[in-house]
Write a structure and sequence with these properties.
By secondary structure, this protein is mainly alpha-helical. The protein has a domain of 51 residues. The protein has 2 helices and no strands. Helix 1 packs antiparallel against helix 2. It is elongated. The protein starts with a helix and ends in a 34-residue tail after the last helix.
């Protein structure tokens, strides 16, 4: 089973809900362990993002990737890309 960033968020929010449960709250030590492991997973995701930025490679699936448009739609019904030229005087 492959997990992704959305799964991690779900687990973290479930931990928060369990901590707030007045009838049977989660043990603090267990919540701390979940937070520590989550921090390691997040750090690995940061490395993945940096790798993607540097190489332009496809991701490993933890962070969903979408194809970026080549250019923003511009004049003439989007047939020409929008451009902006800045000049220093």
């Amino acid at each position: 089973m492959k997990h992704n960033i959305d799964d991690l968020r779900d687990h973290l929010f479930a931990t928060l809900e369990a901590l707030r449960d007045t009838n049977k709250p989660m043990e603090i030590e267990r919540a701390k362990a979940i937070a520590e492991v989550s921090a390691v997973v997040i750090d690995s995701a940061k490395v993945e993002v940096k790798y993607l930025e540097l190489t332009g490679a496809a991701g490993g699936g933890f962070i969903p990737t979408e194809k970026k448009p080549d250019a923003l739609p511009g004049p003439n019904g989007g047939k020409e890309p929008a451009t902006r030229v800045h000049r220093l005087r």
